[in-house]
Design goal:
single chain, alpha+beta, Threonyl-tRNA Synthetase, Chain A, domain 2, BirA Bifunctional Protein, domain 2, 4 domains, eight-stranded mixed β-sheet, 35% helix, globular
């Protein structure tokens, strides 16, 4: 009797026959001994599985090795389990929360009697090395709800998670040596495959992100396939700490967040406000040249407006609570601080009759909006409650979509690519689970964006489910000076809001037609973009953006009059110059200018005072200086500002 077989299809389209019950590991062995040794997990019909799981007949299967990005995520998930195994051995009474892989690493949450200190992390990491050396296999089991509750009867956090699982959800547990965890997986074959890891730090984290629940202790770590990758990441991490915008923001006196005002609300100090102002002026100049019109709208509005737009039902958890209306208004009227501008811009569009000849209408506003982010998610300028959005809403005919997308991508290239020298990529984000509108409308909107990208010749990735609730979008992701990726501009196509507000324009046929909308931001928010710029440039901003562009330093009091004349000449030319006449030594004052990352120092000694020159030191050039006639110095500075050069011209 011939044993039953299964057939699986490999990535190259070839077919492999195996005995029924064969696993991913069996498939790897059948392909070759080298692959069997390198295999870490497998992808079955698009989902990542453990190697030890039996393969279904007819599946499309790929073996994952350390060359596959998805395998790195599996490695980090497994590393989190090794961390939990070590913690349970050292702290037997620790309750176990969640332990997912995250970007560049992993974490695990624990409920313990006291916070973890540096000495604890050192001991845990040492114990993790023992778990790795033991090479425990990761064993997967599917269990009933009753069995799961029995196994985790002493672990209330896990019991709560089990109660949340759907009635038809498969419940699986994983065992590695002495540790058993409730987990969907997948994992690498054994703990011995985890060679290069490092625990980074511990921090408090509310259970399930809920501030009303107990505080757990979260341990963060990272894991990589090679020693070089691990060491490279740790070097980048060290560099990132030096660039932390919160530290530099204080050192350079750019901004503060103060308890008297509240978390997530930025106080822009004069130098930070100058950054803000320069960025606003730049983007407003760019868009005004391209047919945009500026508008201004209130910070609060009646709640009904956000009900009508669909924001309130789907965005309520991110909005601040409603406020009672003022005296004299109808009972039951409530107001909200605005979390976005689009409904008000829509009302401006709808305030008068529009013709097809008027379109596109581009309304722009750098506006303050407010979102009630959880306090545990707030992070300096990068995650705030008060946001300054460089927002715009474009109202157009369907036949204008592609050309408008092209113009927006041109603006992205001008601002991010040419002006800031950033490498970026495009993501096409499609419909999320929670959305407004019909699938047919979403099909139309997604098709329009994708066709525009294809006709543009752009390279892009699909971000499945990453769209806004009212429409798909193109997200621009860019990399900073040390390789980290950031979310930047966004271009969102919206058929839904014009329908909800019954927007119209009179067509060439003299009949009413429905416009479409594009929501777009180039910086995103000024808070986040400035936070990024601080870290990207390590506080050493290009001349056009620097709050203080030149510091004039007389060597002694005798040269003070000449230094004042130079200072006045620079300011008259529009250069943000300051004069340091303090009695401290010249070396001390030079060092102070370097600490404040001033692009240029203009030293005036007796020779310079008599000759009408300045001894110019560029930031980061050490003791090297160039003596220039004052008119030449002013010309070079104004040229550098005008061209928004990223490299010094002096």
């Amino acid at each position: 009797m011939v044993a039953a077989e299964i057939r699986v299809t490999l990535p190259d389209g070839s077919e492999k026959r195996l005995p029924q019950g064969s696993t991913g590991a069996d498939l790897a062995k059948a392909i070759g001994p080298g692959l069997a040794k390198a295999a870490l997990a497998l992808r079955v019909n698009g989902s990542v599985w453990d190697l030890a799981r039996p393969l279904p007949d007819g599946a499309t299967v790929a073996i994952l090795t350390d060359r596959d990005p998805q395998a790195l995520e599996v490695l980090r998930h497994s590393s989190a389990h090794v961390l939990a195994t070590a913690v349970r051995q050292l702290f037997p009474r620790a309750q176990i929360g969640f332990g997912p892989p995250i970007e560049d690493g992993f974490y695990y949450d624990f409920e313990v009697e006291r916070p973890f200190g540096p000495e604890d992390l050192e001991a845990i990491e040492k114990k993790m090395a023992e778990v790795v050396k033991a090479d425990y296999p990761f064993v997967r089991e599917e269990v009933s709800r009753t069995e799961a509750k029995l196994r985790f009867k002493d672990d209330p956090l896990k019991l709560e998670r089990i109660d949340d699982l759907g009635p038809n959800e498969v419940i699986s547990v994983y065992t590695d040596g002495p540790f058993v965890d409730l987990c969907r997986g997948p994992h690498v074959p054994s703990t011995g495959r985890i060679k290069h890891f490092k625990l980074l730090h511990a921090a408090g984290a509310y259970w399930r992100g809920d501030e009303r629940r107990q505080m757990l202790q979260r341990i963060y770590g990272t894991a990589w396939f090679t020693k070089d990758d691990l060491e490279g990441y740790l070097r980048r991490l060290d560099e990132a700490k030096k660039r932390d915008h919160r530290v530099l923001g204080k050192q350079l006196d750019l901004f503060s967040i103060q308890e008297d005002v509240g978390p997530g609300l930025i106080l822009w100090h004069p130098k930070g406000a100058m950054l803000n102002f320069q960025l606003r002026r730049f983007i407003e100049d760019v868009i005004l040249e391209r047919g945009y019109q500026l508008v201004y709208t209130p910070n609060v509005t009646r709640e009904e407006l956000f009900l009508r737009s669909g924001h309130l039902p789907l965005y309520a958890e991110n909005q601040f609570p409603a406020m009672a209306a003022g005296e004299g208004e109808a009972e039951g009227v409530r107001y909200r601080v605005k979390p976005m501008n689009c409904p008000m811009h829509i009302l401006i569009y709808a305030s008068q009759q529009r013709s097809y000849r008027d379109l596109p209408i581009r309304l722009a506003e750098i506006a303050n909006v407010y979102r009630n982010e959880r306090s545990g998610t707030l992070h300096g300028m990068l995650r705030v409650r008060g946001l300054s959005m460089d927002d715009a809403h474009l109202f157009l005919r369907e036949d204008q979509i592609e050309q408008e997308i092209f113009q927006l991508l041109d603006i992205v290239e001008l601002v991010l690519g040419k002006t800031f020298g950033l490498a970026y990529r495009l993501d096409l984000a499609t419909r999320p689970a929670k959305k407004l509108g019909s699938d047919a409308t979403w099909d139309q909107a997604e098709r329009a964006l994708e066709q525009a990208l294809k006709h543009r010749g752009a390279t892009y990735r699909i971000d499945q489910g990453g769209g806004a609730f009212y429409g798909p979008k193109i997200d621009i992701k860019f990399n900073d000076a040390i390789g980290r990726e950031w979310q930047g501009a966004t271009i969102q196509l919206d058929f839904e809001q014009p329908e909800r507000f019954k927007l119209e324009y009179t067509g060439e046929d003299n009949r009413p037609h429905r416009p479409v909308m594009i929501h777009r931001a180039i910086y995103g928010t000024l808070e986040r973009f400035v936070g990024f710029l601080i870290e990207h440039f390590a506080g050493a901003f290009p001349l056009w953006l620097a709050p203080e562009q030149v510091r004039v330093l007389p060597i002694s009091a005798a040269q003070a009059p000449a230094a004042r004349t130079l200072h006045d000449r620079l300011r008259a030319a529009g250069i943000r110059a300051s004069l340091d006449e303090r009695s401290d030594t010249l070396n001390y004052r030079i060092r102070d200018a370097e600490l404040h990352k001033v692009p240029y120092m203009a030293v005036v000694g007796q020779r310079e005072a008599e000759a009408g020159t300045a001894a110019v030191r560029a930031r980061g050039a050490g003791q090297k200086q160039t003596v220039l006639p004052v008119p030449d110095f002013v010309t070079k500075l104004t040229d550098e500002v005008r061209t928004r050069s990223l490299t010094p011209l002096v």
